[in-house]
């Protein structure tokens, strides 16, 4: 894992060491805070929606990660762990709970019997479809706000870089 203060790890090469970072203006802090707040509101909506549906937010994320996996509707345990950014043994426990709720099923891979394939059951498909419809509607409502914040964040960086360039000239 990366050191949150900036030591780049193999999974996140975009983090620069603290000594290489540029200073941040007050407006950039405000834009970052507003963007983080908008994201947190969406995440809170998502957590509440999952709870109302009778599952945990992590179970919802697992269902979405399985159904939304690129190119297919199933994952291996390792792929699910990676997508959720959790340890393999934590993914196994989560899958156990999802199987008990009849949201997913697991089968040995036909190609490699050492791998376990996880896919949604019809009950899991229905649960995810309902939650995804709610999430898409919420994103439709907040999308313009998020887009505007992202644009301001990008502009703030460009303005800051231009000021730095001009002061060095």
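^ Assign residues to that structure.
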């Amino acid at each position: 894992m990366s050191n949150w203060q900036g030591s780049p790890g193999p999974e996140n090469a975009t983090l620069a060491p603290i000594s290489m970072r540029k200073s941040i203006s007050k407006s950039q802090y405000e834009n970052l805070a507003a963007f983080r707040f908008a994201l947190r509101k969406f995440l809170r909506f998502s957590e509440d929606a999952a709870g109302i549906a009778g599952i945990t937010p992590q179970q919802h994320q697992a269902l979405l990660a399985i159904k939304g996996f690129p190119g297919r509707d199933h994952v291996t345990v390792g792929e699910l762990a990676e997508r959720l950014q959790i340890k393999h043994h934590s993914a196994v426990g989560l899958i156990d709970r999802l199987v008990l709720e009849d949201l997913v099923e697991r089968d040995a891979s036909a190609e490699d019997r050492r791998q376990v394939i996880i896919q949604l059951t019809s009950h899991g498909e229905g649960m995810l479809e309902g939650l995804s419809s709610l999430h898409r509607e919420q994103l439709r409502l907040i999308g313009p706000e998020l887009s505007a914040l992202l644009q301001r964040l990008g502009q703030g960086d460009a303005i800051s870089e231009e000021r730095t360039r001009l002061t060095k000239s």
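The first helix runs from residue 26 to 53.
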